Amino acid sequence: MEDLCRIALEAAVEAGASYADARYVSERVERVGTKNGSVDQLTSEHSRGIGIRVIADGAWGFSASSRLDAEAIRQAACLAVRIARAGATTAKAPVELSPLEPAVARVPHGAKKDPFDVPLEERISLLMDCDRAMAAAADVRLRQGFLVALHEEKFFASTEGAAIYQDRIETGAGIEATATDAGQSQQRSYPSSHGGQMGTRGWELVEELDLPTEAERVAKEACELLSAPHFPRGSFDIILEGSQAALQLHESCGHPIELDRVLGTEASYAGTSFLTPDKLQSHFRYGSDIVNITADATLEGGLGSFAYDDEGVPGRCTQIVEDGIFCGYLTSRETAPVIGRVSQGAMRADGWSHIPLVRMTNINLLPGDWTLEEMIADTAHGFLLCTNTSWSIDDKRLNFQFGTEVAYEIKGGELGGMLRDATYQGITPEFWGSCDAIAGKAKGEWIIWGVPNCGKGEPGQCAHVGHGIAPARFRGVQAGVMQDEGEDDDE
Amino acid sequence: MTMSDKRSLLDIARSALEASAAEQTEVLVSADESGLTRFANNAIHQNVHKSSVGVSMRAIVGKKIGVASTDDPSEESLRDLADRALTLARHAEDLEDFVSLPEPIAATGDTDLAPVQATVDCGPEERAAAVRQMVGIAAAEGLSAAGQVMTGTDAVAVVNSLGVEAYFARSNSRMRVVMQGTDSSGFAEAESDDVSTVSAETLGRRAADKALLGAGPRDLRPGRYTVILEPLAVTDLLGTLAVYDLHALAHQEGRSFTSGRLGQRVCGENISVWDDGHDPRGGRLPHDYEGVPRQRVSMIDNGVLKAVPYDSYTAGREEGATNTGHALPAPNTWGPVPLNVFMNTGQYSVQDMIAATERGVLVTRFHYTNMIHPVKTIFTGMTRDGTFLIEKGRIVGGVRNLRFTQSILEALSNVDMIGAEGEQFEYAWAPALRIQGFEFSSATEF
Fold first, then answer.
1. Inside any domain, residue A175
2. Contact between chains at A399 and B135 (C-beta distance less than 8 A)
3. In the prediction, which pLDDT does A174 show?
4. Res. B1 pLDDT band, cuts 50 70 90
5. For A32, phi and psi rounded to 5 degrees?
């Protein structure tokens, strides 16, 4: 792979590039999926190729190829230069990169137990055990289980002298039960929805989840939701369980701090951001005093953890919000100088075939001094909302609406029964401004949740990111926006 | 001869098939050659090209199935592919309802489907020229333009051990532009297999006019309104319905409004929705990813739910069901989602609809739509890039964007004007609609 990247860099320079980097990526993914006692997904995916990024005539060009013979790579490099020159015809100013000491490094993966070493029979058997446990609940229509193992080898080289080899293993798992009734479909998941939990860890992640033990409860809760009352409409105090809090953080903090979208480069697709650079200067209040948020690529096991980003910048921890005040962005070598900083290392690409974009690392709400138990006991009337079902947010990341699988009413500091079809909505800074309690004091409450499906860019890219977070409470939130049948219209 | 031509792709597919020792085998080969030029702040900032070939094999032993893939089509790699797929199949548990891969079925047309040369020949220089046209309009109007110009070709070959051999190649292009003013924005987009039929100037002008018209937006109280949805917004609505509800697996698993409602009225009598992979107004797909010719499926006919699309798996698990050629690449755990959805047209222009509206909201496009409750078809999302207030038959100005939380079927029950013309965006083709009582549940700050 070193030779292929060297050929690419030499060809790019020869064609006229003033800067070039080449990224060889080889990715191996194995997925196991079960549904209702059958294996409906058993896959082995191999992908490898090279992506060549250049600056020529002051503009970017990029070309990617799955053909890896020397001639194909030279052609791809020359095409990248041609593309850059075509783009330069509209340029206002040449691309400038923040300074970087080129790294030469080899980074091993952090998995303790390689998931690819776990026999397929064992992986399938684990999910089938879960399936049988979920089948005990009579009204469950769909029983699903998921396991994924990913091994990525990446070599990055640049004309500045960087030569970085990184080895990465990711493992993920989850289960879901869906109960249906006339006009109803209710789902419960563990440990979170949309495929479960995922991290830069090995099989030990799956073992710690102990899926079979949770399976019967998950199925039972899905059935109970069919007859649970509908979530009411009104302004309530709500506590978000960890995985829902993670997605809230993802959408309302993670995306709006991506400096490329702040500067308008995603305007036609994902949108821009309300967190404009003037808010950095004016010490904009993003949340309440207890809200402290970091972007940290160095967390052990986080799905957004890495040693070097796809520009060769070392991963690091950056303060984003301190005591409620907005103070930092996710940046790249090109965007950081616009706000007078150097890249904090957030450029990541989806495989070999895409250019790197400013992406989340692990965006974390730092732990507070509460436990979830204390928060519930301290709530006179409110709701605990758990496990995401739907999400939507406007193109500046202000107006959001989320739905959760289940809610529990809290009355007089005690947790009550289940409610179905819970939704809540708000405006980002108002919402985080209403945060008055954050858990994390008790062991195991602060978890790095993996989000393996973060979409961005054109052509579309999917990033694997993480969110360290514990349950948190928010006061006076508008909730219950989805009407139940027979409910009176507000208007 | 290129890597994506019929002979090359079928040769790869046959070589892989020969390497397989499974009881049944399917090989899917895809080739993609695409260039995309993105611009923002009136300049090109991302400019990319991708060339790839992918090979996927589904190996079957009894009712056990394994799927392996690679993007290396060399002989050695194809042998490894066959080994991996077979190994997986041997380790799998039965997929109980699986019957068989499809048998060969004669193609039903589309012999003329081929990449359009103008699109094939469109390189980074031509894409940059289109960008310059849109940016020129933005600069002249004091606006900031962002968007993309994409051109490419893709080809797909499918063979299986029962004798299926299918192939298609096509071109595609898309231009998209957002024009941003101080407090407003406007959007325009067009797709075609022939890039020479897409006018950057027309799109740039349309988006700029919307941005200028929407300047100084006012607040609008959330509530139920008469809305006029332009075609792009209607295709978003249709696409959401297609993904979550309008296919056999969701129907069979009870997670769709269609479950138990075939033959029943589900929306207004003036609404018909169908899927047709052969209609040139959409992105044509002559056969599915199992090599089965796509059939036209009438899903909603004059408001009555008629049918849902099937693939071989979902057809095999339901008595009397027929495979309509809607398989996605294996393993498809989501279902045979229709990718060429159409809605009937009416007799009105958008201008007619505006003129006939006492008070309402004109919506250019939706943003970040997501289904909240598939069985009740309740979805949510935001308006974006051109939302206007209509009073007494004319647009009186822009409004700040609104969030809707609305049942799709309820909306399709309250359509009282349908556009005479339609547009294609991604997986659906639709006209503009005027809808009564569309629910906006909250507003945002811009």
1. yes
2. no
3. 98
4. very low
5. -125, 130
Please check the confidence at residue A491 and state whether its pLDDT lies above 60.
no
Range of the domain at A44: 2-226
Q: Are residues A193 and A251 in the same domain?
A: no
Tokens (6 digits) for A235: 């302004």
| Same-domain check for residues A359 and A287 | yes
| Rounded average pLDDT over A221-230 | 96
- Give A374-415 pLDDT, tens digit per residue: 999 999 999 999 999 999 999 999 999 999 999 999 999 999
Mutation target vs B (from A251, A276, A392, A400; most B CBs, 10 A cutoff) = A392
Give the distance from residue A357's alpha carbon to the nearest chain B alpha carbon, in angstroms: 10
For residue B345, give how far its alpha carbon lies from the nearest alpha carbon of chain A (Å). Answer: 28
Give residue limits of the domains in chain B. Answer: 6-201, 217-446
Residues 6+ apart with CB under 8 A from B381: A392, B236, B366, B367, B368, B369, B370, B403, B404
pLDDT of residue B87: 97
Place of tokens 């071989």: B312
Q: Do A39 and B147 touch (CB under 8 A)?
A: no
At which residue do the structure tokens 């207004």 appear? B268
Which of these three, A162, A197, A226, is where a domain ends? A226
Is the model's pLDDT at A488 over the cut of 50? Answer: no
**Does ipTM top 0.90?**
yes
User: Cis peptide leading into B102, omega within 30 of 0?
Assistant: no
Instruction: Give the phi and the psi of residue B9 in degrees, each rounded to 5.
Output: -70, -40
Q: What is the CATH number of the domain that holds A130?
A: 3.30.2290.10
Q: Could you write out the DSSP letters of every residue in A101-167?
A: ---EEEE----SS-GGGS-HHHHHHHHHHHHHHHTTSTTEEEEEEEEEEEEEEEEEEETTS-EEEEE
Domain boundary, last residue among A203, A226, A249 = A226
Q: From 3.30.2290.10, 3.90.1150.10, 3.40.50.1000, 3.40.640.10, which CATH number describes the B6-201 domain?
A: 3.30.2290.10
Structural domain contains residue A40: yes
Tell me the per-residue pLDDT of B65-114, one tens digit each, with 9 for 90 and over. 999 999 999 999 999 999 999 999 999 999 999 999 999 988 765 567 89
Verify that A239 and A218 share a domain, yes or no. no
Confidence of residue B3 (pLDDT cuts 50, 70, 90): low
Q: Does B376 touch chain A (CB under 8 A)?
A: yes
Give the type of residue at B106: A
Entry pTM = 0.96
Regarding whether A263 and A194 lie in a shared domain, the answer is no
Claim to verify: residue A152 and residue A242 sit in the same structural domain: no
